[in-house]
# Entry
Amino acid sequence: MMKKQALARGFGLPISVGLVYFFLYIPIIVVIVFSFNDAHYAYVWRGFTTRWYYELWHSAEVWDALTNSLIVACSAVVLSLTMGVLVVWHGSHTALARLFPLFYGTLAAPEIVLAVGLLTLFSALDVELGFTSLIAAHTLLGLGYVVPMVHARFSNLDKTLTEASLDLGATRGQTFFKVILPLLFPSLFAAGLLVFIISLDDFLISFFCSGATAQTLPMYIFSMIRAGSTPVVNALSTVMLVVSSIFVLGFSWIQVRRMGMRGVRL
# Structure
């Protein structure tokens, strides 16, 4: 009797965890499976086919939306990294260092609040909604991730390296480009990768701040779903899932390597 109870306890927790994960991922599994459905109705199985991926590949609208998303995501990455590094580098030597916790506000606040606030700000400043407002909004969102990550890495740098560079006659600019920036590169790469993923997948801020001229890929998927489209939307979602998973795995690999390097140094 005791053995049966111990066996039940031993298998009970793994089974419960497995059921929870299955419940979480079953919508994704359904999307992937029905992206190969040979039917115009998304959830009536008629057989296996790959023609939706063929139509997806030859869809000009999808490529236009993807181009817009890539432009916005790459611009947000460049701007958020540049501004974030400058804020951390300058703020560490001034009173701005006390304001670094404010950058966590974009992470703590609900995204709908941030989207409505940005829309109100753009309207008050009479800024026309489009690529400019969308890139600015995604840059603001990215700074909430870049500044904390870069600041955490910058705080752990060996200050003697900076002092040695200055003592040897290097200017502050040379010290920044030759010493600080290479040491911050792993954090910058990880932060840029994270901002790219978030910007590429973001819908809510894009919906409020894009206007009618800049349609991103998530917004195109939303319009397809509202129109009752074919399983092309499932194929597109599957492709986005694969791409996002690759970036997430790359980000995780970088984080693991950073933790391993810290362990070696310790």
